[in-house]
Design goal:
single chain, alpha/beta, DHBP synthase, 6-stranded mixed sheet, 8 helices
Length: about 220
């Protein structure tokens, strides 16, 4: 496993990581929650590789990271919920809130169907973690960020945790040190008739209720 240290990352190192992603590789990297598996969501073979590495059922969708609302617009059809999405984004992004939104289909040049698992929805997050944000911006489009662990196992908060669970199945790892929490991001579904809290995480239900004037279930 080729490993890079965020604290000592040269421009040449970063270019190598970026080239690996562009070629369809899968990396382990630090996010604003736990370590994630990054790949090009438009590359079906790369997404299949994520499922293989994790031992993850293909019925479970994969979230992606973005660096702007413009990037969100290229992924989803949010005509009915754009006001709410923009309201929440302006308050909680960059940060550990994942918004589940209606996804544009692959027939429109969108992400692999494996990313959405055929649900017609996609989870998106604008991260605050410096390396993750730099990576998305340099890549120029979203990257995946499903947790870097075996399916059903605890989330990973150190590079050693990633190695212990994924071993040599993963070819490249970016070591960002120990992350402050293994807690996953808050998941809020905006595809229902009312915003629906799927999983409470660092962004609390109380904070969301305040932002949405109680319009949440």
């Amino acid at each position: 496993m080729l490993t890079f240290d965020v604290a000592n990352l040269s421009d040449r190192d970063f270019d190598q990581i970026l080239s690996f992603l562009q070629a369809g590789g899968v990396i382990g990297f630090p996010t604003d929650t736990a370590y994630g598996l990054g790949a090009d969501p438009f590359n079906e073979s790369a997404i299949r590789r994520i499922f293989e590495i994790k031992g993850r059922p293909e019925s479970k969708p994969i979230l992606v990271l973005v660096d702007s609302m413009d990037m969100v617009q290229r992924l989803v059809g949010i005509s009915d919920v754009s006001g709410i999405a923009n309201q929440l984004a302006s308050r909680f992004w960059p940060g550990p809130l994942t918004l589940i939104l209606p996804a544009l289909g692959p027939e429109l040049g969108n992400v692999s169907r494996l990313v959405t698992s055929g649900t017609g929805t996609i989870g998106v997050r604008w991260p605050s973690a410096p390396f993750a944000l730099r990576l998305v911006r340099a890549f120029g489009r979203p990257i995946t960020a499903t947790s870097a662990n075996k399916s059903g196992m605890p989330s990973t908060v150190t590079a050693d945790d990633v190695r212990a669970q994924l071993g040599m199945d993963l070819e490249m790892l970016i070591d960002g040190g120990r992350l402050p929490t293994s807690q996953g991001s808050t998941l809020l579904d905006l595809t229902q008739d009312r915003p629906t809290l799927v999983r409470e995480g660092p962004v609390s239900r109380m904070a969301l209720e305040e932002a949405l004037n109680g319009n949440i279930r």
